[in-house]
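Bit of a strange request maybe. I'm writing a small parser for structure token strings and I need a real example to test against, not something I typed by hand. Could someone generate the tokens for this chain?
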Amino acid sequence: MSADMDAFQGVLKSSKNILCVAGAGLSAASGIPTFRGAGGLWRKHNATSLATPKAFKANPSLVWQFYHYRRESALKAEPNAAHRALAQFSLASIRQNLAPDSTFTLITQNVDGLSAVCLEEVLKQHPDEPQPAQPYILEMHGRIFDVKCTKCEHVEFSKASPICDALGGTEKLIDRQTADSDISVADLPRCANCGSLTRPGVVWFGERPFHMPSIDKLVEKSDLCLVVGTSSTVYPAAGYAAEVQSLGGKVAVFNLDRSDGDEDSDFLFLGPCEETLPRALGL
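Reply from user aminoacidic:
Good idea to test on real output. This should exercise your parser:
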């Protein structure tokens, strides 16, 4: 395991199929809570326990308040330097000088949409960029602004703030430490197609992530995996780096702190990824 930037850039330059697996730490500098470790509470609840079908069935009001809070946080957030570095590296015209004739895809576990927003901004600055043979980004856990019907499964992308009148202002309860609001199911977000109750259109624990066939193919051919801002505890994403390594590829981890399994990486760069990643990628 090495922290040698020059050695990493040598590997980067010779790599042909590069993958990045990103987690919540990528967006931490943008003000998006990670909801893990010491910061894992939302109001008085374990935040990860609310991201399940069981929790939604038991208390859709509470779960919608949690996701309304997350939606409002994402609406206020701006991409940081790590998002920008990955967005720039996604473009073949920029990457050509750093990793000639290579492919690159970002697989993100984040649902905040900041990577997609940043990529769109970068592409506008490079209107002649050719369309890549594979996706720029795969959002494997979905998007916070997708709203999915619990009955007809209609999905709609909406950045409405609030998503419904009854949720307006509930995001401020965390600051006042007041009791959770008990919102009637009838007043929660409804489907524009059939009028039924909707749910956040993200992947919850126990549900199958999106884009799995495409991701599996990318992992199989990858010769360099960048692990950015993730504790590597949520599967299947947590296993991608080890799979790349088992097939002969290299792994570089960019995290604020040590995490399980990073001692097996080829490169480990500790510190804020908005600082370490742009430097490592030469951007």
